[in-house]
Structure of Heme utilization cystosolic carrier protein HutX:
Amino acid sequence: MLSTDLADLKAYMADNPGAVIEDVARERKVTPRAVIEALPSSMVRVGGGEHFAAAMQDIAAWGEVTLIVHTDDAIFEFTGAVPAGEVGRGYFNLMQPKGLHGHLRHERCAALAFVERPFMGKTSAFVAFVNADGGIMFKVFVGRDETRALRADQLVRFRQLADRVAA
């Protein structure tokens, strides 16, 4: 990316921190990772993808969260507890027979981005699992309480995880 394009993207994200990351990436012909990294530094911390399994195990203890997979064709949202998992046969396997389960290509995770920013008039906090191509594998959002505020206990866990992974 040219330095002028990067400066323009950073200025755009500073003015529009709640913009949909995938939409900005598509419109500007950059990766979602570039968009995340263009957010003001106070809103994002990035750590290495080698922390994938440890991050997923930590998130499994948070309780009800929202996991989002955003593709060009759909936005899938799952609200509930992320199950514990383990690495086996080349995948990080979510160990639950019903609800959210599956096999994640953890070795393709190049980074974990911890993002706290305004979105649709509210503060949001999520972990973006970023793949080797700069795309977002999925995002895990800190849950909300009955007043629609971020759950304080999860926000503490989110920040502690960011401190460990993106030190």
